Amino acid sequence: MRWLLSRARLHHLAGSLALICIAMSTVGCRQDMHDQPKFEPLEATDLFANGAASRPMIEGTVARGMLQDDKIFYTGRTPEDQFVTELPVPLTRELLDRGQTRFNSFCSPCHGRVGYGDGMVVQRGFKHPQSFHELRLRESPVGYFFHVMTNGFGEMSTYAAQIPPADRWAIVAYVRALQLSQQTNVDDLSAEERERLEKDPDTAAATPVEAH
């Protein structure tokens, strides 16, 4: 029995050694892509006069998708550097719906769902932002809101990295809808909208009026 056990162990050991040898021979034969001839970042070379392998970008080089040749769309300003007063994108229900979801995700924690500056973080001690329904902001051009989201203002940091330009304009459109919703007389609503408001005030208040 002892002899049989020893033989089994030897057989197992031989199999293990064979696998190790195969693995080592495979490693020795492979050609690693990460070890191919190339210059590493900031590596020196005598190929160029300044001794650096890394070359500066050609003047005027623009990363793919970052041309931003439409100043109004990407900055909210006219060629004369004034804030635009009209949306540079079509005002549609889809745009407002998109603006509502982005506003609720990124803006409502401070500004509140309706824009009065009473968001959840404010209720927990964060500085109270201005209400979107103050006269100054109701009269501010749409380009101003886009500019603030892009560059930040006061305690608010820039959201350019989190929110792409198209979504920033969608939020601007929704902010205008919120402002309009708090200044609209019930008599100005359609019969269908008044009925919806009477049945469910909370849902109706959170639903933008159809764009005209």
Give structural notes.
This protein is mainly α and 212 residues long. It has a domain at 71-206: Cytochrome Bc1 Complex, Chain D, domain 2. The protein has helices spanning 2-29, 71-75, 93-111, 120-123, 135-138, 142-151, 165-181, 191-199, 201-206. Helix 3 (93-111) packs across helix 7 and helix 6 (142-151) crosses helix 7 (165-181). The longest helix is centred in the first third of the chain and has 28 residues, at 2-29.
What form results from the Cα inertia axes? extended
Helix count from the secondary structure assignment = 9
Count of DSSP strands? 0
What percent strand? under 5%
Major pleated sheet: none
Radius of gyration, in angstroms, nearest whole number: 31 Å
pLDDT < 50 stretches: 1-5, 208-212
Report the top-level CATH class of the domain at 71-206.
Mainly Alpha
Order of helices and strands: HHHHHHHHH
Separation, N- and C-terminal Cα atoms = 93 Å
CATH topology of the domain at 71-206: Cytochrome Bc1 Complex, Chain D, domain 2
- Name given to the CATH homologous superfamily of the domain at 71-206: Cytochrome c-like domain
| Helix content bin | 40-55%
Look at the helices and sheets and give the structural class.
mainly alpha
CATH architecture call of the domain at 71-206: Orthogonal Bundle
Mean pLDDT: 85
